[in-house]
Design a protein that fits this description.
It is built from 6 helices and 5 strands. With about 260 residues, it is an alpha+beta fold. It has one domain. Strands 1, 2, 3, 4 and 5 form a 5-stranded antiparallel β-sheet that branches. β4 and β5 form a beta hairpin. α1 packs across α6 and α4 packs across α5. Keywords: Membrane, Transmembrane, Transmembrane helix.
């Protein structure tokens, strides 16, 4: 979880004279919104120079990954902040709509599907959170690559290092996901998981997801690679949005309803 571009932009010139250079990489201005440095590649030819899309580099999975600057990332700071808040509001509104309307509509239209979703959510989210939490340690820089740098969107100034936040959220994911798995597994072997503890775990996961949304938003606005090891297509962002809404709605139902 770190929106930290590698400050490796340099000017490179090839050829006997500057006017015959075939490729020049010029440093991009430091953007306070993302605390990143980008590179702009320019190719010079007989008909003049044509600018290529500006790019930035991240370290993830022990590799240097070059991705284009995000569209939102290049906006003025007030627009970046507004976009961030609008995405957060959309996630909150989607969660509210699922809890109050969509869930009941699915239950009425497809009761078998609704029952299956209820029966599968403990093991699905349990396995997902445990796996992600372990990944925070086994693939640490993958997750630090999607942590917002100081000044991102013009409003992100959370104290603490990226590594610190990746570590504590990893522990929280393993604990929360493990509780969901136990709540699913124990009844299968004749045991019982304390309902109060399940409610507590669900409440904690609900709040944890709220705290981790900025990392996923960063992947959209800044093309931060994360586990995808590259910029995600729009369809992937849309599907993840729906998945996040369903997750938040499930944790609300388990913890607060």
């Amino acid at each position: 979880m770190l929106a930290r571009a590698v400050p490796s932009a340099v000017v490179k010139q090839h050829g006997p004279a500057i006017f015959s250079a075939t490729r020049v990489v010029v440093p991009r201005l430091w953007r306070a919104a993302s605390a990143q440095k980008a590179r702009v590649a320019v190719r010079a030819g007989a008909n003049g120079a044509a600018a290529l899309p500006p790019t930035q580099t991240y370290i993830a999975g022990g590799k240097t990954i070059e991705v284009p600057l995000g569209a939102v990332q290049q906006l003025p700071l007030p627009l970046q902040a507004s976009t961030f808040l609008a995405i957060y509001a959309a996630l909150a509104l989607g969660t509210w709509a699922w809890v109050t309307h969509v869930d009941a509509a699915v239950q009425a239209a497809a009761p078998a599907v609704h029952a299956w979703l209820l029966s599968a959510r403990l093991v699905y989210f349990g396995l997902g959170f445990v796996a992600a939490g372990v990944g925070h340690f086994t693939a640490h820089d993958v997750f630090t690559s999607i942590y917002p740098a100081q000044g991102t969107w013009g409003l992100w100034y959370l104290p603490g290092s990226p590594s610190f936040h990746v570590h504590w959220t990893g522990v929280a994911e393993v604990l929360g996901g493990g509780a969901l798995l136990l709540a699913w597994l124990l009844p299968l072997v004749g045991g019982a998981f304390p309902p109060a503890l399940l409610r507590l775990a669900a409440k904690c996961l609900f709040v944890l997801c709220l705290a981790m949304w900025p990392a996923n938003i960063l992947m959209l606005t800044h093309n931060a690679p994360g586990p995808a090891m590259g910029a995600l297509p729009w369809l992937a962002h849309l599907l993840r949005f729906v998945g996040q809404v369903m997750g938040q709605a499930s944790f609300w139902d388990l913890g607060f309803a």
